[in-house]
Amino acid sequence: VQLQASGGGLVQAGGSLRLSCAANGLSVGRLDMAWFRQAPGNEREFVAAIRWGGGSTSYVDFVKGRFTISRDNAKNTVYLQMNSLKPEDTAVYYCAAGRVITSTSSTPGAYGYWGQGTLVTVSS
């Protein structure tokens, strides 16, 4: 089982990036998928999630309206479209997979599978 995150890079404030998380050995359509991020010195924090059933999505307040999580079951890939990026969005972004209950969907410990992380740097 492997999750491969990619798409990070250096972007100016106000710019956009699209992160991808390609899955091998598991089906993104049958699991809850999420993105977390971790800035230096900070704990890993929830960003967005998409549920395996109806595909409902959830976001942390500080990315609502700017980030969009989606998945392509045929490509077995989950995406995070990030628009209007801010310097405070700078972090390593991780994708995660698992079967979680709604009350724990924003908790890192609820997910059993993790990608290696991709660095996003937003300059001011």
Summarize the structure.
The chain is built from no helices and eleven strands. It has 124 residues and is mostly beta strands.
SSE topology sketch:
Layout: E1 2-6, E2 9-12, E3 17-24, E4 32-38, E5 45-50, E6 57-59, E7 67-72, E8 77-82, E9 91-98, E10 113-114, E11 118-123
Parallel strand pairs: 2-11
Antiparallel strand pairs: 1-3, 3-8, 4-5, 4-9, 5-6, 7-8, 9-10, 9-11
Number of continuous helical runs: 0
Helix percentage range: under 10%
Number of strands: 11
| Gyration radius, rounded | 13 Å
Residue runs with pLDDT of under 50 for 5 or more positions: none
User: What kind of oligomer do you see?
Assistant: single chain
Principal-axis shape: globular
Order of helices and strands: EEEEEEEEEEE
The N- and C-terminal alpha carbons lie at a distance of 37 Å
Q: Quote the average pLDDT.
A: 95
Report on this model:
The chain is mainly β and 124 residues long. The protein has no helices and eleven strands. The protein has strands spanning 2-6, 9-12, 17-24, 32-38, 45-50, 57-59, 67-72, 77-82, 91-98, 113-114, 118-123. The strands form two sheets. Strands 2, 4, 5, 6, 9, 10 and 11 form a seven-stranded mixed sheet that branches. Strand 7 and strand 8 form a beta hairpin. It is globular and about 40 Å long. The model has no long low-confidence stretch (mean pLDDT 95).
